[in-house]
Amino acid sequence: MTSRLTGAASALPAPMDQQALWDGFFEQHYNGARLARKVWQHSGISTRRGVVDPTQEDISTWGTGARMQRFLQEAMPLGKEAVSGALADAGLDPSDVGLLTVVSCTGYVTPGLDILLARDLGMQDSVQRLHVGHMGCYAALPGLGATSDFVVARQRPAVMLCVELTSLHVQPTTETARSGSPTPEDLEQMVAHALFSDAASAVVLEPGQGPGLELVDVVARTDVSTADHMTWDVTDTGFKMGLSPSVPDVLATHARPVVEELLGRHGIAVQDVDGWAVHPGGRKIVDVVGEVLGLPEELLAPSYDTLRDVGNCSSATVLMVLERVHVEPGGTVVAMAFGPGLTLYAALLRRAA
Q: What is the average pLDDT score of the chain?
């Protein structure tokens, strides 16, 4: 008994040119700091998406309450578009859905998006709901695993939506950052402000045999000794990212063992995998994963291209990368994502005929 991904769709807010973001806001935000400029130039991003364009609206000093109100306002139409598109792609009606899973680490409201979207999209009042919160960039994969378990156990279709609005969490600058003598914490904020973007992405899972991407297996690995390397703290001015420069080194240690564990359960070798959906947390992260797994650059193109075209959209990103991965029937795909903990998740999928 398996579940299959039979529909997918994404919804993106307005595009923002990466260089224009620097020229129009962040250069002044960091008082032209050389290090911030260097981070920006090496981001590997051309275009980002945002419900808030800081060149038009500076929310860096807003309180968390105001940011959460804005989250609800902006997330609802994006979520509706993504879920409706995924259901249409699968040929299903909202009333067919047995479970709606909503994944986000960038905003919280109660009643939540799960309740409000189910209501507005016309899902049955008996639809079950699951919220996966504050897990970070890897959350799509445990969300996918839990949603798949429901589909297999209940033999009913389900939808998973990842909606992340990181543009709501631009942080106020510090005196040390503006002085040209940034602290390590300042550097972490510079990197976060150069990478993160907004998106909503949804997938439909159905039970049984038929066309689609079969979800074969999911594995996880958390290195608690490096738990402080990636953090996402709730503060009075929104959510604040902590991102150690040592993250790629930790991933280099764990990526291959995790993938080999996943594939070994099914008698598959790394070199036999047909497609890879690696979460582009940053260009260096994709580089490191490719190096330790021995992957040719063409297999990493969906990750590099997603980073270039939309940036790092937290949990939604790996689903958008997966949309760019195309394999023939019978072909296998590995999806990988990373986040706070420090945690790695990997999923094995197979294209059904």
A: 96
